[in-house]
Design brief:
two-stranded antiparallel sheet, 14 helices, globular
């Protein structure tokens, strides 16, 4: 009974939050949806990262790779296809590259996997930089502009899709499979779970949403080049946000992305020269004192309140 009431409360709060975000452009200043769009982008990147890396404990540092692939797909196809198809193509190209990457590198473990994924981003970034200069004879690309309100609603829809897919995965047997891979991979293989197949598919699925976000956000920035699209900072920011919020629950990465995106905007505007230093200190604090993030902190607070 108490569990059902808890689910109803969570569902009611989620519905109100979605309604608030859907109607926000009608009663807020015009710059507000622009700021919220950035938050939604980081929510997608963080939740999609945590979808695979959270339960399996694989530390991927290739978020910028698949986000950038989505951006470049949008730049190349923006003038040839309708915008919904461009977004779909960006996500599918990222998914396919994710499948290939997963097939190559998901046999690696620990810091080998992390180093490989980070190196992949540098490889792709420098390859695109070489291609633009030597083959296409350009520095970057102009992207077909889409009005800010359309971008906002597309990003909101992508957030809802990413969160719902992550929620249903966590509540299904596939969530248990991913958890078993993270806890004891050899034992999972011994009981008949096709570990490699699941790792590759769900890694590629997380890349799907990253590419979708990149395809939409490219139309906001108008101009992109390899340094913008494959910015290495995007490899670490979703990791920090997911750890800050906590990867144990779906709402953990959402909280982490929302709070830290707002914090980064404040730090950039007030302390532009100390922004990365403060972010580094925050990362150390999270690892040292909040290993389970805000989710774990809330759980401990509830237990202490019940015991008292």
């Amino acid at each position: 009974m108490d569990h059902s009431r808890g689910l109803l409360k969570k569902g009611g709060f989620s519905s109100l939050l979605v309604l608030f975000l859907a109607t926000l452009p009608f009663y807020m200043p015009p710059y507000t949806p622009l700021a919220v769009t950035s938050i939604l982008m980081y929510v997608v990147l963080t939740v999609s990262w945590a979808m695979f890396c959270g339960p399996t404990r694989y530390m991927s540092l290739a978020t910028a790779t698949f986000f950038g692939v989505g951006m470049y797909t949008s730049a190349v196809l923006g003038e040839r296809l309708p915008f919904p198809l461009v977004v779909l193509c960006g996500s599918l190209v990222s998914f396919l590259i994710g499948l290939l990457t997963g097939y190559i590198c998901l046999r690696l473990r620990g810091f080998y996997f992390a180093i490989f994924t980070f190196g992949l981003n540098e490889l792709v970034r420098n390859f695109v930089l070489w291609w633009e200069g030597r083959v296409a004879h350009t520095v970057g690309r102009w992207v077909v502009l889409i009005d800010s309100l359309t971008i906002y609603y597309y990003m909101l829809a992508i957030v809802l899709l990413t969160v719902l897919v992550t929620y249903f995965i966590n509540r299904s047997r596939y969530g248990l499979v991913l958890l078993s891979i993270g806890e004891e991979e050899e034992a999972a293989a011994h009981i008949g779970i096709h570990v490699t197949r699941y790792r590759i598919f769900f890694f590629a699925l997380s890349c799907f949403f990253m590419g979708m976000a990149g395809a939409v956000m490219a139309t906001k920035w108008a101009y992109i080049d390899p340094r913008i699209a494959f910015n290495p900072v995007l490899n670490f920011t979703p990791v920090l946000m997911a750890l800050f919020g906590g990867v144990g629950k779906v709402y953990g990465p959402i909280l982490g992305a929302g709070i830290l995106t707002l914090a980064s905007e404040i730090l950039l505007s007030r302390f532009p020269y100390y922004y990365m230093l403060m972010y580094g200190i925050l990362f150390i604090v999270i690892i040292s004192f909040l290993p389970d993030g805000l989710v774990g902190l809330t759980r401990r607070w509830r237990k202490s309140s019940v015991l008292s």
